[in-house]
Design goal:
single chain; alpha+beta; Alpha-Beta Plaits; DNA polymerase, domain 1; Dna Ligase, domain 1; 3 domains; 5-stranded mixed beta sheet; 16 helices; DNA replication; DNA damage; cytoplasm; DNA_pol_Y-fam_little_finger; nucleotidyltransferase
Length: 424
Amino acid sequence: MWDRVIVHADLNHCYAQIEEMLYPELRKVPMVVGGNEKSRHGIVLAKNDLAKEFHIQTGESLREAYEKCPHLLVIQPHYEDYKYYSEEVKNIYREYTDKVESFGIDEAWIDLTSSQRLFGGDPIAIAKEIQMRVYHELGLSVSMGVSYNKIFAKLGSDFDKKMGFTVISKKNFKDVVYPLPVEDLFYVGKATTNKLKDKGIYTIGDIARSHKEYLKSFLGKNGEMIWYFANGMDVSEVALSDNERMPKSIGNGITAMHDLSTFEEAKDVFRVLVESVASRLKDRNLKGSVISIHLRDNELNSYTRQKKIDIATNISSEIMLVVEQLLQENCLGSCYGYLDRPYRSVSVCVSQLADDSSHVQLSLFVDENQRQKEKKIDRAIDEIRNKFGFEKIKRCCMEIHRELTNFNPKEDHVIHPEGWFKSL
């Protein structure tokens, strides 16, 4: 038996695969699941194998996809179906352990360490059994990576996206992992990749063989973290199943109807997202102290900025104030009122969550009475929308750019592929 058994399971091309399972005729044509092209929610969320042959990429615009494959079939997303079957897959995982940690709608880590004795002692056989059960009972293929830590398990599941099964052990990890390019390592995004390559570090093995302090000198704490990851020293735990734990963050994102070029356009779109996030936080009796914005430009380059606040919040006006500060500090262009580049997609996220009823350290510089008034306003707006509909009450500023703000994140279920949130 292994001292530690961590499986990473990836529901291959999740949205497209579920559509093909429900409608088998879709397997015969190049097909993608994408947003509404007319309303510019037009990015490729998932693709099938035939579309992949045309080099169509997840996250690119439908316009770019059509240029590669003019006869491409675009299916509108059916998020309720995806959430239902994702949960059915994870219910199979939960029959083997209570430690099933979701990573998006299509991926999960599964800790089988304590399940070895109960299910026969062979961790490889247990993982294989889970994979085959998902296939035979639900008709869905899952690629799996089996390792002794979460980082290598995820690397393993990425090796083969068609019912792949890769084992990375303490004995073979140097042979399997070290030749891989640095960008394959979890938490190594585009900016970090460029910095590493500028220093002559091209593979995960190069990271592992570098001095930890040297990596820290130009990557900061991130350099130390990826050094541990590359050397197989990740000891992070797999969290309990989703219904037994607090979420790590709550956020919403949208692909705008047209590229956002001015500060006011971006601010108005973010305001709709912020109101949704604040409402969802209060629905779950949560508040958070780290506020992040994520933007993707019209060339599909991604940027993330965040700020930690002193007093955790779920009040929309307080979250929005931080979002505006982040936009002003990082995204303004040289021309007054304009952004530094056109942005296609944006999202906002609140993390480092805590129970809303937890103790708050009062501050002399914060008007607590005003905070409570703002929270009551938020709740009143939520109650009106829940009872009469989202359109029944809006802030006046949202009518200025109505074509950009006419959406309801809480109902539209805007879900981006995991790669959309790739780390920097």
